[in-house]
Structure formats: structure tokens, C-alpha cells
Amino acid sequence: MDTLLKKNLRISDSRSIRKISESQNHRISGSQNLRISESQNLRVSESQKLIISESQFLRISESQNLRISGSQNLRISETHNLRISVSQNLRVSESQDLRISESQDLRISGSQDLKISESPKLRFSESQNFRISESQNPGSQNLRSPESQNIRISET
């Protein structure tokens, strides 16, 4: 390894960092923390960009999987927090864009799954908060926006 980098790269036995191709950009600016706990897999396929701007935290707790398939962009703007608690799965399928604009919080509580199928776009505009809470109604969940609209997602 290049001794001029003055950085430490530590990979434990239970973790794998696989396949960062030539067309990948891995940029973590100042005051950033990228923490991956034990038994974690970070897989970035071809033509992917993982860009984390200033004062951002990407935290993945134990038994978490962050998978980004081909031609995906995960962009987190300034002063944003993406927090995924234990036993959560964030899966973004092909040709998906997950964009979080300014002053947004995306919070997923315990044992929740956020799954996005092919070719849709999930966009959060400025100064809106979307929260997925638990035990609102038996068998259903409420997604509330500041415009006082309710979208119920029932369990399958």
C-alpha cells in the first residue's frame, strides 16, 4: 500500500468490501464518518457514485446490508443524516434514484423494510419530513407529508 496516504484501512474477518470498478467515484469530504460494523457487506457495482457531502454521517448498524445495483446514484446533500437501525434493509433496484434534498430527514424505525422496485424515482423536496412509524393501525402504516396527506401501505 502507498505509505503517502497516511490512512488506516482495517478490514476484519467477517466483512467484505467487494468490487469497486474503475468507473466508480468514492468521495468522502471533511469531517465525515463512514462506519460499518461487523458482518457487513458494502457492495458498489459498476458506474456507481457514492457521494457524501460535508458534515454527513452514514451509519449502518449490525446485520445491515446496503446494496446499490447498476447505474444507481445515492446522493446525500449537506447536513443530512441517513440512519438505518438494526435489522433494516435498504435496497435500491435498477435505474433508481434516491435523492434527499436540503433539510430532510429520512428515518426508518426498527424492523422496517424500504424496498424500491424498478425505474421509479423517490424524491424528497425541500423542508419536508417523511416518517414511517410503527403501530399506527393494525396491518397498515401511514406515510405522512406536511401537506396533511395520508398514504397507507398495508402489509402483504
From TrEMBL:
<dbReference type="InterPro" id="IPR052293">
    <property type="entry name" value="SRRP"/>
</dbReference>
<feature type="region of interest" description="Disordered">
    <location>
        <begin position="132"/>
        <end position="156"/>
    </location>
</feature>
<protein>
    <submittedName>
        <fullName>Protein CBG14295</fullName>
    </submittedName>
</protein>
